[in-house]
Amino acid sequence: MTFQSGRHFLQIPGPTNVPDQVLRAISAPTIDHRGPEFAALTSELLDALKPVFGTSGPVIVFPGSGTGAWEAALVNTLSTGDRVLHVETGHFATLWQQMAAGLGLLVDFVPGDWRHGASPEAIADHLAADSARTIKAVCVVHNETSTGVTSRISEIRQAMDATGHPALLLVDTISSLGSIDYRHDEWGVDVTIAGSQKGLMLPPGLGFNAVSEKALAASRTARLRTSYWDWQPYIEANRRGFFPYTPATNLLYGLAEALRILKAEGLPAVFARHDRHAAATRAAVRGWGLEVLCADEREYSSSLTAVLMPEDQDADKVRKIILERFDMSLGAGLGRLAGRVFRIGHLGHLGDLTLAGTLAGVQMGLQLAGVRIDPGGLADALDVLRTE
Length: 388
Ligand code: PLP
Known about the structure:
By secondary structure, this protein is of the alpha/beta class. It folds into 2 domains: 9-16 and 266-386, Aspartate Aminotransferase, domain 1; 21-263, Aspartate Aminotransferase, domain 2. It is built from 13 helices and 14 strands. The chain has helices spanning 20-26, 36-53, 66-77, 91-102, 120-129, 153-163, 213-219, 231-239, 249-265, 267-288, 315-326, 352-368, 376-387, and strands at 9-11, 59-63, 83-87, 106-110, 135-141, 143-144, 149-150, 168-172, 191-195, 206-211, 291-292, 304-308, 328-332, 341-345. The protein has a 7-stranded mixed β-sheet, with helices on both faces. A hairpin with a 4-residue loop joins strand 6 (143-144) and strand 7. It starts with 8 loop residues before the first strand and ends with a helix. The protein binds pyridoxal-5'-phosphate. Pyridoxal-5'-phosphate binds at residues 14, 65-67, 92, 141, 145, 172, 174-175, 195, 204. The site of pyridoxal-5'-phosphate (PLP) has 12 residues, from helix 3.
C-alpha cells in the first residue's frame, strides 16, 4: 500500500480506537501478579467494573477474547444434553449457537431475518410451550454486531418472567457494554458476556462474565465446567486481590485507565454520545438515499450502523476504495450479508469530528465507487451533530 500520512481511521465496530492514555498505561512495566501492588490494582478494577455492567455481583475477567467469554458462560452454567434457546439475530448469534451445539447442548434456534432483534414474544411462546421445563438457558446477543440491531433485554426478561419459566438468561454485550445502556442486575440477567476491544476502548485480549446469584448456584452442579474457564477459583482468588493463573497484567493496567475515562465522562453521557452519533450516522445514510439495515426503530444500534447497498452494488468494493484512498477501515458484511452491507462503527473513543470525518470518507467512497447517492447526506449528519 502507498504511504498515508495522518492517523488511520479504524471505524470497524471493534476493535475500536484505543485512547493514548490507555496505550500509555499498557506500556508500563509488568509487575509480579502475586505481589501486594497487584492486589491493589485488582480491587480497584473489580470495583470500577461493577457500575459498567450495572451489577453488585462478581465480574470475572479472563485472558481471552469474546468467544472465550461465550464459552465460559455456557460451560459454567450447563451440562451436556441440556436444552438452550438461542435467537437468530445475525452472524454472531449463529456462531454462538454453533458453539453451544458443539459443546453437546441441544439447541433450539429461533429463526430470524437479520434485520430485527430477538422477539420477547417469540421467546415467551417458546418457553410457555416447554411445560417440562427442559430449557435451561435463553441466550441472546444484546447488540448484534453483524446487523446493527439491539435487542430489548429488559422486555425479554419481563416476557420470560411472565411465563414463570426458570431458564437462565445469558446475554452477549460484546459490542454494547460501555456504549449502550445496560443493567445486569435491574434487568435480571444471569450471565453478561463482554470483551475488552469495543466500548471498553482496549485492545482485544480480555473476556468478561458478570454473574448473578442464580448463575452461581447453577455453576455448582454444571458438568460442562472446565478448569480454565471455571468461575469458582476466580471468585476465591479475586477476594484476596489475585487471579487463579497468570492474568493479562498489562491489559489490566489499560482496563483500569479505560474505566477511569468512562467514569470521568459519566456513563449517562457516554450513552447519550453514542445515541447522538448513531442518529447522525442514520441521518447521513438516509440523506444519501440508502437504507439502514435495522428494520425497527426501537432496535437501532447506537454503537454501529449497517448500511444496505443497492442490489447492483458491492459493499466490499466501496470498503476497498475507502481503505485505499482515505486510509479508513469499515466493517465488512458477515455471513449471509457479505457484499450486501458495510458497517460503520461509531463506538468507543470517538468525538464529533471523528464521526464527521468518518462520514465524509464514506460519502466520498460511495461516490468514487459509482453508487448513486445524494451528497446532502453528510450535511444532514452535520446538522444533527451541530444542533442535538
Ligand atoms: N459476539 C459479538 C456480538 C461480537 O461482536 C463478537 C466479535 O466481534 C463476538 C461475539 C466474538 O468475539 P471475539 O471476536 O472477541 O472472540
